[in-house]
């Protein structure tokens, strides 16, 4: 912290770029400090002064110079540096278009007039080594350098250091990372909990939406849960289960995407530094949601279940909570997967909205599965919302085999028989549905992990 002059800011939050927290140059110095934690002997930096004014660039380069003074080597790309920044470097590597070396050494280019006094050396080098100037002088600077003593000295130094010492064994690593997967997971979990605590707006929004939706559905369907004497009453109960599943699930899916997108930016930088594996990062990102989803489920269930006045049974309340938790979980992991599959939050929203339309139409409620065309009914079974509604309906209504209703055609049947004939809902499917919903959670989680590992949307 002292090396990069951040010791006075040790208790400050990093914040959101351009919104709060550290300034741009302070963030760059913090990035340098993070890399120095591992005590590397060499540090590679790509344009550390880009986007900074002269004062901020000077502060950053002072930190870089202080790093060099500790005995480390810094290899740094700089585009058109100022005189002060240029003079902070010990050696210069100058490349021409195409990547060929023009010069590598201290302070001169053979065959070219020296840099004038009070002139920016960087601008001078760009001018004298441009392709147009090479053509005018009839000189290929890359060829001049390759035949110079500087090039021969450089090749000799490289060859000398390439030869291993007698008895030295080649470097071999059995693992990609120095710490175990468990240690990486614990470290990522701790950080994610800290992020959630320092970004309360995400969970506050989720809590407010949960309470509002629960209040709306609870008051709209006030005490309709025990009205099972008519087909309309049964459909009303199914309607609140269907609506609340979609509304709250979609809210979770969309809300999580902004947070995941911000974390992905951090992941790209830290993956390049080899800090941890993508799977430990993605798994921690999903595990940190569990306690919040449990709390969200309990709050919503406590409101809706008793306001709608579903059957007063401990086992049915447990089933309601379990199935609703799994529903919120797969919607949340779907939101994470949508972000990791796309380049921006906007595209993730478009992809999610496209899926929501199919989830709605193929949920098996608006159009019961028996009424679907043969070429579409199979898609309902690939729809997680269909299984959520299926499970919620049979756990709340499937046990009333002693209660009868009369459908529109005048046929009297029990509630389980009505569910079976109208919707193909079978009461023995509670256990298999739980397994199916867990499978959807795992599938979306795996998709989020794999897309994070295999896709990279960095613009650099």
From TrEMBL:
Q: Does the keyword Transmembrane apply?
A: yes
Q: Which Gene Ontology cellular component annotation is one that this UniProt entry carries?
A: cell periphery
What stretch or stretches form a coiled coil here? Answer: none
Keyword Transmembrane listed: yes
Q: How does it sit in the membrane?
A: Multi-pass membrane protein
Question: By what name is this protein known?
Answer: ABC-2 type transporter transmembrane domain-containing protein
Report the subcellular localization. Membrane
Q: Name one GO molecular function term.
A: ABC-type transporter activity
Which PANTHER family does the protein's record reference? ATP-BINDING CASSETTE TRANSPORTER
Entry keyword set:
Membrane, Transmembrane, Transmembrane helix, Transport
Q: Which domain of life is it from?
A: Eukaryota
Domain ABC-2 type transporter transmembrane, first and last residues per copy: 184-396
Protein's organism: Chlorella vulgaris
Membrane spanning residue stretches: 204-224, 231-250, 290-310, 317-341, 347-368, 375-394, 433-452
